[in-house]
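ping. complex inputs:
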Amino acid sequence: MKLSGLYSLFTIPFALAASNTGKSQLVSRAAAGNGVIRLDASTFDLLTAPSRDWSASIHFTALDKRRRCAPCKEFDPAWNAVAKAWATVPAEHRDNHFFATLDFDEAPTVFQKLNLASAPVVWVYGPTEGPRASGKNVPSKYDFSNGFEAEPLAFHLSNHTPIPIPYKAPIDWGRWITFLGGLLVFALTLRFIAPILQSRWTWAFITIVTSLTMTGGFMFTRIRGSPYTGADGAWIAGGYQNQFGQEVQVVALIYGTLAFSVVMLTMIVPYQSSPARQRLQVYLWSGVLMLVYSVLVTLFRVKNRGYPFKLLL
Amino acid sequence: MSTAFPLPTDISSTTVANTASLLRIVAFGLISGAAIASRLFAVINFESIIHEFDPWFNYRATRVLAAKGFYEFWNWFDPTAWYPLGRVVGGTVYPGLMATSGVIYNFLHYFNLPVDIRNICVLLAPGFSALTAWATYMFTTEMKDSSAGLLAAAFIGIVPGYISRSVAGSYDNEAIAIFLLMITFYLWIKALKLGSALFGTLAAVFYFYMVAAWGGYAFITNMIPVHALVLLLMGRFSSRLYVAYCSWYAIGTLSSMQVPFVGFQPVRTSEHMGALGVFGLLQIVAFASLVRSHVSSKQFQNLLAISVVTMGVLGAGAFVVMTYKGWIAPWTGRFYSLWDTGYAKKYIPIIASVSEHQPTAWPSFFMDLQLLIFLFPAGVVMCFRDLRDEHVFVIIYAVVASYFAGVMVRLMLTLTPVVCVSAAVALSTLLDTYVDASEPDVPEERTEANGSSASDGKKTKKAGAAVGSQAGASAAAAASSAISDLVSASKSNAQSRQKGIWGADARLVILLNAIGMLVFFVFHCTWVTSNAYSSPSVVLASTNPDGSQHIIDDYREAYYWLRQNTPQDAVVMSWWDYGYQIAGMADRVTLVDNNTWNNTHIATVGKAMSSPEEVAYPILRKHDVDYVLVIFGGLLGYSGDDINKFLWMVRIAQGVWPDEIQEPNYFTPQGEYRVDDRASETMRNSLMYKMSYYRFSELYGGGNALDRVRNQQIPKVGPTLDYLEEAFTTENWIVRIYKVRKEDPLGRDLKTANAFAQGKKRKRGKPVSRRRAIV
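pong. complex structure:
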C-alpha cells in the first residue's frame, strides 16, 4: 500500500518527462512534415494522450487509390495548406496545437477503435491540462457542409487554436495570367474580330444560348451540384424539383429546336423563291413543331406525374 | 396582286379602322375578365381569406392604416413583434401596398360603399392583374404593334408564372409590383422614343410608387441604366436618351429617397451606384458631343475623346475607393447572393433557408410558362432583326431575367413579363405572315433578281467595312456606322427579295397549329392555376375516397384556440415562418416573425428548439415565453412541417453558437436524417423532436406509430416532457401548442418535481448536500 503510493509519487517526474519528450517528438515530427504529422497507431495514442497540454486537429483520410475516396483527394490539399499556414506562427503558439493526418491504410485499428466508417473526417482534440484546458475530452467534429475548401476550414479551426490560423488564400497566378493574356489577345485581335463583335447575330447567338441554358435549369445543377447523370445511367432525375446535368442539354435543345422552327417559319420560309419548296418547308417545320412539342410534354409528364395533358405521343 | 383567299373590296378604310378599334376594346375587356376570373379559384374553392405568411402582416398593417389613419400607421411601433425588442413598423416597411388598399377603402367609403377591408385586400391582386395586362399591352405595342400587344396582354393575364403570386388572397407586395414594373418600363421606352421629359417624369413617378411598394425596385434601378449604357456603347447616344434618362434619374432618385425605409440608400449603396454612374457618364458624353458639334479640329477631337475616357476611368476609380473606404455600402447579402450563389448558404443561412430562394429546375419553368418558354427565344431573335432602341431593352431584360429566374424561384416573377412580351412578338409575327392574304408574284423572274441583290448586299457590306476602317479614330463612331451599314444591307436585301406565302393550305396548317397550341396553353394555365397555385396554405384541402373535398383547418383552429384561451399578453414562441400568422390571427406576442431582420433573435429560437429541455428552459423563461407552437405533419403526411425545417433551425443556431449546436450531431453516424429509433441522441433530446412526437405513439395504441412524412417508425416509448406541458393539439395534429411551466414553488428543478409527483424514488447515488448545522 505504502509502497505503491511511493511508487506512484516516484513515477510522476517520469510521466512529466515522458509527456515532455512526447511533445518535443511531436514538434519535431510536425516540423519535418511541413506542419503535418503523419500518424500511425502509436503516434496517434501519443498525440491524443489523456493528459496533454496541447490541442490537436486530426484528419482521418484514405488516400490510397484502392479506397476510391474522391472527397479525400479533394480535401487533402486544403488540409495541408491550412497546416502549412499554421506552421508559420511563432513557436510558443505553434507548439500548442498540432495538425496530423492519419491514413486508413497506415492505421486501420484506429479507425475501428474510433468507430469511423467514412472519410475524410476532421476531429479536434482540446487540451486536457494547462491554461487552455476545456475540461471535456470528447473531440469535436468539423462539419463539411461548407465544402472542402481551405478557407472555411481555417476559419473553423481558429476557434480551437491558441491564436487564429493566419491562412490566406494563395493568389491564383494561373487565373490572373489567363485573364491578362486573354485581355491582351483581345486587344491585339480587336481589329480582326471587330466585325464579328459588331454583328448583331453574334450577340443574338450569345443571348439565345444564355437564355436557353438558364431556362433549362443550368443554375439549379450549378448550385445544387447535381451529377451529369444518375448513378444507374438514368438521365432524367425523378421528381419535379430535381434534375440532372444532362437534362439541361436535352431541354435547352428542345426549346432551341422549337424556337428555331418558329424563326424559320417567320424569317426564312416567306422569302423562298419557289412555291413547291416553300410548301414543303411549311409542312416540315410545322411537323417539327408539333412533334418536338409532344416530346417536350411527354418529358414533362415524366417529371410531373400528375400532369393530365398530352399531345401526339 | 393575287390573294390566297377572297377579300371583300367594298369596305372603306375608316370602317376597318373603327371595327379594329372596337374589337381591340372588346378583346381587352375579355382579357381583363379572364385575368381576374382565373385568380378567383382560391376564393371559390376555399373562401375569401388572406393566404400564406407575409400577406398576414400586410393585412394587419392595412387594418391599422384603415382604422387609425396614415399618420398613426407611419408612427406605428409594434411592441408585440420581436418580443422583447419590438418593431418600428412605419420605418421598416414598404408602404405602397397598404397605402393603395387604404386609398381604395377610403374611396369606397366616401361613396357609402361599406366594403370590408379584408375583401379589398383579398381582391387587390386580381384587380391589379388587369392593370398589368394593360401595361403589358402598352409596352408590347411599343415593341411591335397593337396585335402583338393584345397577345402579350392575354398571355400575362393567364400565365401561371404571374398568377402564382397574384391569386385572390395573396396580398403581397408583388401583387401591385408587377404592374408598376411594366408601366415604368413602358413609360421609359416612351420617354426614350420621344425624348420626352414628360414621359421621363411619369416614369419617375411610377418608379417612386414601385420603390414604395417592393424591395425588387432595384431591378428597375439597374435595368434602365444598363439599357442606357448599352445604347451608349452601341454608339446610339442621342439627345432623346439624355433627356429621358436624366429626367427619370433625377426625379426618380429624389422621390425614392422620401420612402423612410429607403432613405439615403440611393446615394450610399452599391445597388444604386450603376444608375448614378450612368447618369455621370451621360453628362460627360453629352458635353463631349456638344463640344464636338462646335469644334472641327481633329487634334482637339482626339484630346476630347481621351479626356472623356480619362474622366470615366477616374469616376469608376472613385467609386471603388469610396466602396473600399466604406462611404458606399457594399452589396447587401440578398443581392450579392444572386451573383455568388454559394454565399448565402455559407454566411446568411436565413436567406438560404427560404424555399422561394432556391434555384429553379426546368420543370418549374415549363409549368409556369408552358409554350411561352420556347416562343421567347424566337421573339428575342425577332428583336435582333429590327434592333431599335426599345428592342435592345427587351434583349437585355431577357438575358438578365432568365439568369435571375434560374437562381431563385421567386424571380420567375420578373422573367414572366418579358417572356410574355417576347413570345407575343414571335407569335404575332408568325400570324401576320400567314394571315396576310396577298400572294407574291410568279416565281420565274425572281431567281435572277435574287442573285444580283445578294451580290449587291455583299458589295454594300464591303463598302461599309471600308468606311468603318477609314473612320477608325473613334471606335464608337465606327461601330455605329458599321451597324447602320449592316442594317441597311439587310434591309435592302429584304426589300429586293419578295416576301409572302403561296396557297391557302400552307396558311391553314400554320394557323391551325398556332390555334391548337394556344388552346392547349389555356387548358394548361387553367389546370395549373386551379391545382397548384390557388391553395391558401392556411387552409389545406385533401380529397376523400369518394372524391369530395375535405378541408383541413388546423392552423386556424390552433390560432383561435390561442386567441380565446390565453391571456392577451401571452408570449408565443414558434419558428419564424408562423410569426405573422400568429400576430394576425391569434393576436398574441411573438418572438420572431417573417421580417427576418434580427439573425441573433432567430438563432436564439433555433437554439431553444434544438437544445435539450434543460438548456432550453432558461432561454424560454428569460424571454417570458408562455406557449411554444410547433407544426407537425407526421400524422397526415404534411411535408411542410417543423421537423423538415429543423435542420435550418440547427444551422442558423450553429451560426451564432458553433460550440453548443453542431449540425452533424443531428444525423445518425451514417449521415442520415432519421426520427425513428436510430435517431441520434442529440436529435431525440432536442425540444423540437420531443414536442413533435410527444404522445404520438399513444395514438396508435402501442401499435406501429408511423411518421407519414418521413416514412419512419416512431419508437413505442415516446419522449417525455418535464419543463413543458401539452396545452392543445389540433384535430389532425398539424399544430401542437405547449405551455411552459413556471418554476416549481418549492424551488426544486422541474425534473425532480415531476419525478416526485409520479411517485418515483429519487436515486441516492451520492448524498445530497443537506442544510448544515450552524456551529
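Residues 180-295 of chain B form one domain.
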